[in-house]
Design a protein that fits this description.
The protein is α/β, with parallel strands linked by helices. The chain has two domains: about 5-155, 3-Layer(aba) Sandwich (Rossmann fold), CATH 3.40.50.1000; about 165-195, no CATH class. It is built from eight helices and five strands. The chain has helices spanning about 15-25, 40-55, 60-65, 70-75, 90-100, 135-145, 165-180, 180-195, and strands at about 5-10, 55-60, 80, 105-110, 125-130. The longest helix has 16 residues, at about 165-180. The termini are far apart. The relative contact order is 0.16.
Amino acid sequence: MAERLIMLDVPGVLYSDRSRTRLGGIPDSGTLRDVRFFDPVALGFVRRLFGVAGARVVVSDAWRRGTPAAILQQLDLQVEAMTPPAAGGHGAEIEAYFAQGAKPVHYVIISCAAPESMPEALREHLVTVDPAAGLTLENFQQALGILGVACPSTVMPAPKLDAGLKAKLAQLQQLARENPARFDGALAPARERTPVHA
């Protein structure tokens, strides 16, 4: 068993109302044609999550029924296992999975399930995804935190400029457009110091 696990519920996470609108459907035929209906952004977040955290994926039993293994292979999700069937929803399936072997210290549950539907012991590991939007950057960052991994800078949103600084920058840009000669003198010494290679 991997040291870190991603307990993944697929509907609402890897395909959502938003991706249905954007991609023209949901993966419900049970054929390889379904691959095109998975949200590529959400898939990217899960792939990045297991890449950065060194985690493996355990897929919910409720989703795997009727889903060919070829679809899981095409999605390239590093699926290690499936939860066993269990009455009581995704939380009960996860408990049944952990009852089969050692529970890792670091695991995250990515699901559309409401926190109150999960057993109390699992809730601190839950990232609740809005099924209308699917897996988002905020969900990804929360999952990294639960797995005990620092968020790499390449997935962080760009820093927001201070409103005053942004206004000053806009003012300087406007002045440069209106009177470019005014700024030529400030740039000339820098140009003179820059060596030119032949």
